[in-house]
Amino acid sequence: MAPSAFDEDYRSLTQLSPALTENKINRALSDWFKESVVFTRWEYVGGIGKGDSYLSDVRKIRIHGVNRYGVDRNIQVILKTIPRNICRRLTFRSDQFFRNEISFYTKVLPNLLKFQSETKVKEPFDNNVKLFLTHCDGLNDAICLEDISCQEYENIIRQETIDLKYCKATVQTLAKFHAISFAMKDQEPEIFTKITNEISETYYDCKLWNWYKRFWHKICNIAIDAVEKEYPNTIYLKKIKNFAVQDTYFKMINAVNNKQNAVISHGDPWTNNFLYKNKNNIISTKIIDFQLSRSASPVLDLSYFIYNSTSQELRVKHFDDILKYYYEVLSTQIKDMGSDPDRIYSEDKFMNDVKKYSFFGLVASFEMTPLIMLEPDEAFDLELEGNEEVNIDELWNIGTIKNKENRRRSADNVVHCVDNGFI
Length: 423
What we know:
By secondary structure, this protein is α+β, with helices and mostly antiparallel strands. Helices cover 48% and strands 14% of the residues. A 5-stranded antiparallel beta sheet has the order 1-2-3-5-4. Strands 6-9 form a two-stranded antiparallel sheet. Strands 7-8 form a two-stranded antiparallel sheet. Helix 3 runs antiparallel to helix 5, helix 4 packs across helix 5 and helix 9 (298-309) runs parallel beside helix 13 (359-372). The longest helix is centred in the last third of the chain and has 25 residues, at 312-336. Pfam families: EcKL (PF02958). Residues 143-336 form the CHK kinase-like domain.
């Protein structure tokens, strides 16, 4: 939302969110710069692409202050605020997602990083974006993070799949993140249990079925249609018709509830939730948007990433290599942090989880692929009338995939799962 939507009074941030009071900004600036800083003004830098955020309003802004000597101190941030539009906020349950992400940034991540800092790990996970401030009351929720586009990090085009080099950089980030959980659960189980209780399931839960079921049936039909058009009269069509049914939603619930090899997972790790920097042909990554963070098998994250961000060509050539690389990074990190990966999560256990849970990423792609492939001018209108929630199916009003290339991308996810015995 551009400044013209406001009164262009840059002396206050309360026009963006009532929670962003002068006192709150003063504290955040002083904490950030480690000296007393007083807020003076803000400026609008830019927005995000249409269709890139449904759960929140997102802006890039620069916040200025002065220290005791009158020297300007400023920081460019990404500010996510709960939607002002009441219908949108209620329909998407934005308060629950904000609460989950704020708990992650304020209660979970600090404990994970503290544990890691006390180990002798050679290449620690430092792929998070630094938090500037948060506010959580269910009505004026806000999350403010450092904008690392100033450090040359950027998103890739969300409609495109990624090549092997970017894929391995992303997988490495996930493995390093997951490894902290395994080591912490082994060495500090009580603290780990405590932080897992700070986040909750926001998507796959029996109590959410009525919220999701109409949309569920729609995305299942879209997946079936894609296979029927691209692979008619094949085992793939037979398999997807048997798989894309109501019972599979409850298999997803069982997957997120199985805590046997659970880690703190991201929950929504497709490429739009990673930022990349390519310097001298070395890919660096940062991971963002922990609104769906949960405690579950790491394979839920890994399969979600694979089926929403890679092509069938890459999977056919490199799937086994990707799995091997993920586990190599994971086990090395666990060992460097002082635990025995063979004891707490052996390669055999990992591969069993791959066989057991890779369907999770396929199911996620039923929803994600049609949404990912939307062009900006096709994105849904989120300025909704009324003060009551509507069915989510009425907002995410997507139909069967018309473009053959995009339809093939959806169908090929099914092909890969069937060929590997995952469904």
